[in-house]
Amino acid sequence: LAIIEDDPYYMLTLPPDTKHGDGWVDGDMAGIRALPTSYLYLDWLYGDGRVIRLDSTAKIIAPGLRIGWVTAPSVYINKLKLRQETSIQAPSGLAQASLAALLRHWGALNRVGEPA
After folding, report:
1. Domain boundaries, given as residue ranges, for the chain
2. Which residues have a Cβ under 8 Å from the Cβ of 10 and sit 6 or more positions away?
3. Which CA distances in Å does 71 have to 23, 53, 61, 96?
4. Whole-angstrom distance between the N-terminal and C-terminal Cα of the chain?
5. Which candidate, 69, 73, 63, places its Cα nearest to that of 39?
6. DSSP string, 15-26
7. 108 and 114 Cβ atoms separated by less than 8 Å
8. 3-class SS at 43?
9. Is the dihedral of CA 82, 85, 89, 90 positive or negative?
10. Residues 6+ apart with CB under 8 A from 91
């Protein structure tokens, strides 16, 4: 039995008291520390590889890009890749290039490596 975690507003969760009088937040992306624990993380710590997490740019970056991603154990990813190769079209090249440029500018690609 798989658990599908689909919470498009997950990254928009912020603690109620991060702002100071001047309106600025401490540190880079200080709200990340306050994110609630996801089912994927709990599965990684204590589970047996049942959680499939779905994420999207729709609520956190730009709704028009229509780009999303799946984080899951390799057994699910391999099956999804086989299905994707025969049934789903890729997002537009302009959308992919725009997102890649934004992530590169933010330095996010340095953390996860260049896309294959």
Report:
1. 3-89
2. 35, 36, 38, 55
3. 34, 5, 18, 18
4. 30
5. 73
6. -TT-B-TTS-BS
7. no
8. helix
9. positive
10. 65, 66, 67
E strand segments, 33-89: 51-56, 68-71
* pLDDT in 10s for each residue of the chain, 116 residues: 899 999 888 877 765 555 555 554 555 555 566 677 888 888 988 989 999 999 888 888 888 888 888 889 999 999 988 888 887 677 788 888 988 888 888 777 665 544 44
CA distance 114 to 18: 32
Contact (Cβ atoms closer than 8 angstroms) between residue 40 and residue 30: no
- Specify the length of the chain in residues: 116
The DSSP H or E segment spanning 84 is helix 74-87
Q: Which helix (H) or strand (E) holds 77?
A: helix 74-87
